[in-house]
Design brief:
heterodimer; A: 3 helices; elongated; B: alpha+beta
Amino acid sequence: MLQAITRRLKPFKRNRRGISTVIVVMLSLVLIVIIVGNVFLWSYQMNQIDWEKMQEKVDIVNAQFVNDTWAQNPTAYALRGSTSWVSGDILDLAADDDVYMTFRSYSSGTASSYFVDNDLSNVDSSSDKGTQSNFTAQQYGPDSIYDTLTEENTAAASNVTLINAESFEGPWPPTGWSETGAWNRENNQAYAGIYSADFDGGSGLAGVLTTPDLDTSDSTAIYVDFWYRDDGSEPGEFVLQYYDGFSWDTVSDLGATLLEGQWLHYQETVTDSQYFKSDFRIRWSTNTNYYNDVVYVDLVTVTKETGQTNYELDLEAQWTNVDYTQANEELSIYVNTGSNSHSLDATGGYMLIGDGTPDWGSTTGTISFWIQWDTVANRPWGQHDNMEARFSGTNLVLDWGGTSALTSSTSFTAGRWYFIAIVWNQYTDDLYLYVGDQDNPPSLDAYNNAWTGTVSTLGVTQNNFMASRGGLNPTDGHGDDLRYWDIDRSLAEIQSDYNVELSGSETNLRSYFKLNNNFDDAGPDNNDGSGVSGYSFSSDVPFGLSSTENLRVDVWTGAAWQNIFTDLTNGWNNVSVSSYLTSSTFTIRFKGSAETSDSIQDSWNIDVALLRAWIDEYTTEVEFTGLSNVEEWTQLEWATNVGWTTGSVNVALQLYNFTLDGYPTSGNGYMTYTSDSSPNVDETISQTISTNPTDFRNATGYWKMKIKGTKTGTTQFDLNADWIEIREARLGTLVTFENRGSLTSHIVSLWVNNSTSHERYRMNFFIAPGETTSYFNNNIVLPAGTYMLKVSTERGNTAVFSEG
Amino acid sequence: VRCKKLRRFVKRFLRDKRAITPVLSHLLLTVVAVAIMSIATSATFVITTNLRETMGERVIVEDVWFNSAAGTVDVYMRNVGKADIQVSGVYVNHVGQSFNGPFHLEINEHGWLRIAFSWSSGEAYYIDIVTTRGTHVASYYKAP
């Protein structure tokens, strides 16, 4: 065979006719093959199509008009907003039979609050009178952080001379004066006149020269003025002392001067109120040890500033950006008028905290109290020998996790209210002592930043106030407002509430004893205490005594002040200011009610000052749900029959659109109306939805709808729901097909023909071999009389169904 | 070995004593042959394309409506083949009729072919629709 082919090719090889012949022959062969191949393939392909068409056989088995309807009533409801159910059952909604399900509306008015903006206004061109401690406190809360308004003495001061240039020229001692020791009148030295009071020193010689009792109880200041001469005394040998009604306080060491042998002028203005007593006295005290320790005093003048006391309060507060367009506008002021009525007066007795076992030795903590000693001595608080406060001289010593952990820098005196706060933190090794008094807020008095003591593991001997551990060294005096916090409070926190009573529920406040005629613990530990032996409750309190004077509030009308509160009371004080709030700026003033001859300086604690604006409105909102089906709805009708116990309610009905995943606000699924102007008129409202009605159910056939009624005004009303129904319908043509062939058929069109019309409906579904399936189309309307249905497949086959 | 053959061929070509004329004649013949075959190839493409389209033409009549209101015979046609079609002529009972031409259907397109023909109720008509490629879609239809 191979040899035969070789033989055939040899002549061809030897042929001299050239390559062109070869090309033509080869290409011709290729073209012939392509043409023949293509014809064969196309023929096969089209034959395949034709064969499939022949194999296909689809029949229309049946065609019928469909008109199915379903109806449901709600099966459950949910209250929206603060709507409340009144009566009735969900089953009462099944029929329009005047058996109601009733829901009550709630106040839904929108309110805006505007805290006071500033205290800088001066609309009446009159300067403020009085002081504010913390205006910012009015702009928040109520949070027990107060702005304390305090009256100011506006009366002109007058001076009264108590000792008028006493130069000891008359009888010795001058009338009312007293002296002990070597004090005498001598003329060897005098600053004015011939004589002066002198003390000739000597070993162990001591004496005092004392003025008469000076009534400074009505003073606002005392001016002390005298000349003195130190001819040899040493420091501490010649001192000036004041009497505060309880004890003598050294106020100046005159013997310490280096300017000896000459007359020196002493002048002092005393403003410390502890010396404003009816028996205030001044004395010069000497205690010498050498014969030439000679001192002189001359030309003594003591004047008090008194008299004209008239305490006034006139402080403006202003809002600058208020919505003044609302129907209701109200000024609200929260006030703490003070309710600290009593303190504990210990006279040999003390207080037992709880049953004595409460342990205040936390790892961090703050213990604070007010105290006024009758005598500066003994121990004001303690629960253990290493957790107590005691005195060393007039300084307070804290044995805190160890002996003498901290000593006060303040030298305490009797007859004066002090605020004391002890703060510790074992983690940071900090121990603080803060001290304030009746006239000054607390400040840092002593601090140990390397405190290594531990109080959290000490335990309790006995927890006592006005004494220490088991009643040790009870201190006489008044105690008030004992607090224990389990955190180390900052100075700012302490200052924010040291002079106001708390509620007891403040965060981290564990125990709180107001001591208002009882030993109740207002804190969460609830360790109510008790008194031991000599004690009573006194009305002498360091702060927060309810003011005797009324605090008024006036509003600025643009031309004058108009009173709106005659007396702010404890808690919220509300008053309508709609008639005054006519612009975005609103100004009030706090005014004392006694503005003439007011000898009592009052103060008031303002927590919040705000304006509230709102609209009165009531709303009922109820959501109903029900279960329908998952049929091919062509139409949905939803209807309600409800009434309202008041007329002209704005009603919105919404049917949930599950496709949009929300309640429509327009179009299908949304209806609004205003109810009849008369109350209790049942009205039926309905809507028919023909476009995508199945959007209003979920995959399992649930639907939900909402009824919302709103009316502006102050009248609360009810919704009486009588009947709620959802009705679905399926209208259209159901055509049943059967695939009798062996191939899957794709139905692409359906014809509905009669003598007057030939209507083509586009279809797009497949029927598997042997399958019988129904096709519903709500757009297909079978004509009356004789008609013919014709279905066409994608391959071009048709099937016909005739009726009539 | 190939290298040797190539050198031998070049050597023989260079020593060929024959003139340039035979070479040119070979070249010209080759060019002519290529041109002829190109034309033949193009012609083949055209011919096969037409052949394919003719073979792939399938049109069906979905519906025939003897429209009394319009006085026409409306034929709803759908192109189910593999090529676009254009109706070139319509014959009713072998008599050419006017229609809403040009009537063109792309693949899978469908539409009404309206034949202006005065029909009579109850009569059967042989309607033959011919495409430009010569495909006939013909059948008898009876007017209602």
